[in-house]
Design brief:
about 35% strand; mainly beta; hypothetical protein yedk fold
Length: about 220
């Protein structure tokens, strides 16, 4: 499970990484947006995602936009608060068949830019907060799905983060972890013609750095 993460890197740095893998990152109006650094992004917050400009040709260009973290599926027509299931995460093992996620999985994959995420251990009232970063990288991306719902409150674009069984770095802290994609696999995840199943797994030992965090910054 991942229910808090952050993004602190400048957008120009994200554009550099996309340039390195030969996928242009474009912006509305052509100007690079100035996103406010976010140490803590929580469910229902608006946060940046990256998705293909043209899903039929996903590697031509991708766009940076913002969406609500907590997916509301396209078939939900009532108010935002009437959607009760907590859809901040989607299990990789069942994402292709679960009613809420199967359509976005087939048609609306995205990347969620991240610099770190958090988990907690211990008992209620005495929990320890842990901060996870990618070893040797200043930013990375979660595998995500996005959707667009025409609710009674208006049109809402939202997203969810895929999770999988934890790898060796995360196993001591939680029974799940977010799916972290290598930059070399970003294009494959966005390409709907590619079988994404092999990407939905944890990395090898040593790929994630863990340190104790402070709630004071939250």
């Amino acid at each position: 499970m991942c229910n808090r993460y952050g993004y602190l890197a400048p957008v120009s740095r994200l554009a550099d990484v996309f340039s390195e893998i030969r996928i242009p990152l474009v912006f509305e109006g052509g100007a690079v947006p100035n996103l406010e650094p976010r140490e803590h992004i929580r469910p229902t917050n608006t946060a940046p995602i990256v998705r293909p400009v043209d899903p039929a040709d996903p590697l031509t260009a991708v766009e940076l936009t913002e969406a609500r973290w907590w997916l509301i599926p396209f078939f939900h027509k009532r108010g935002i608060k009437d959607w009760k299931p907590m859809c901040t995460n989607a299990r990789a093992e069942t994402v292709a068949t679960t009613a809420t996620f199967r359509e976005p999985y087939r048609r609306r994959r995205c990347l969620v830019p991240v610099t770190h995420f958090f988990e907690w251990t211990g008992q209620t009232g005495a929990k320890t907060m842990w901060r996870f970063t990618r070893a040797g990288a200043d930013l990375f991306c979660f595998a995500g799905l996005w959707d667009r719902a025409h609710t009674s409150d208006g049109v809402v674009e939202s997203f969810t983060i895929l999770t999988c069984a934890p790898g060796p770095d995360c196993t001591p802290y939680h029974t799940r972890q977010p799916v972290i994609l290598d930059a070399a696999d970003w294009g494959a995840w966005l390409d709907l013609s590619v079988d994404a199943t092999p990407l939905l797994r944890a990395g090898q030992a040593g790929t994630i750095h863990v340190e104790r965090a402070s709630e004071a910054a939250g």
